[in-house]
Structure formats: C-alpha cells, structure tokens
C-alpha cells in the first residue's frame, strides 16, 4: 500500500467514525428526547396518580368521619331513646306528688291514698331504672344549667346565690336536663 492508499483508508475510517459519531449523537438526542417525552408524559401521569391518591385518602377520611358520626348518633339515640316518653310523664309525676300532699280524713280516702302511693313508687322506680334523676336543689348553689331562678329573696342562714326553696322539681335523664328546677335563690 502506498501512502495515498493509507490516507484514503484513514480518511474512510475518519469518515466512518464521524458518521458513527453523528449517528450516536442522533441516537443520544433521540433517546434524550424520548426520555424527555416520557418524563413529560410521566409527570402528568405521576401528578394524576398523586391527585387520585389524595382524593382516595380524603374520601376514606370522610367515610371514617361519617361512620364515627353515625355511631355517635346511634349511641346518643339509644342513650336518650326514652326522653320523649319521660318528658310526657313528668306532669303525671307532678300530679301524683300533689295528690300525695292531701291529708285524708276518712278511712276510705286513706286506702285510696295508699294505692296512689304504691303506683307513685312504681313509677319512680321505673323512671330511675331508665336513668331519670331528680335535680338536687335546697341548700345547693344556684347553677343556671340545672336551675331556673323564679324569685330572689333575702333569707338568713343561707349564703348568697344559694337555693332557699324548690317550687317545682327538675329532672335529668342521664346527663341531659329534661326540665330545670324552679327555685327561689338567696340574694
């Protein structure tokens, strides 16, 4: 081989190398652009996946809150299921108490009164079993959540803001006030 042939071979190798470099560069650019396209497409997809995951988590939290509220409402409904019945019976209890204040003169009236007392005790026991309690008043400090002040008086032997007299009994069903006590309060 001659020098000319050697240059030609080298030039051919250089041209081939250059062509290969161009092809490699194009492939790299093509790969890079494909990765960019994939990344650009992946970012919206990833964003959509993240958004959907957040939506699922919010829905799950909402559902958990709904279940908790439903359970609490059911418990409250069960706890206070007899409230309307008890509220309807409170005037009956008041009437029994007024009837028991009557002092009988005849023996027939005495036997009728003892029958009324027996029914009254049964009614009180039934109400107690349902969780109904009488609100304590006389000698207690006035509590606006439990008592309704009808009168304010000045009496010796009582502290300021202390209940002097109960005018009407108040009742609670478990921890809920059904009817506040009507009371006289010391000034």
List the topology elements.
Elements: H1 3-79, H2 83-100, H3 107-129, E1 132-134, E2 147-153, E3 163-168, E4 171-173, E5 176-179, E6 181-186
Parallel strand pairs: 2-6
Antiparallel strand pairs: 1-4, 3-6, 4-5
Helix pairs in contact: 2-3
Describe this structure in words.
The protein is of the alpha+beta class and 187 residues long. The chain folds into two domains: 1-79; 83-186, Nucleotide Exchange Factor Grpe, Chain A, domain 2. The protein has helices spanning 3-79, 83-100, 107-129, and strands spanning 132-134, 147-153, 163-168, 171-173, 176-179, 181-186. The protein has a three-stranded antiparallel beta sheet with strand order 1-4-5. A three-stranded mixed beta sheet has the order 2-6-3, with no helix packed on it. α2 packs antiparallel against α3 (107-129). The N and C termini lie far apart (131 Å). The model is unreliable at 3-9 and 30-38 (pLDDT under 50).
Unreliable sequence segments: 3-9, 30-38
- Beta strand %: 15-25%
Mean pLDDT: 82
Class derived from helix and strand content: alpha+beta
CATH architectural designation of the largest domain: Roll
Helix run count: 3
> Helix coverage percent of residues?
55-70%
Tally of separate domains: 2
Largest sheet, strands/sense/barrel: 3 strands, antiparallel
Which descriptors apply to this entry?
187 residues, alpha+beta, Nucleotide Exchange Factor Grpe, Chain A, domain 2, 2 domains, 63% helix, elongated, disordered N terminus, chaperone, GrpE_head, cytoplasm, Protein GrpE, GrpE
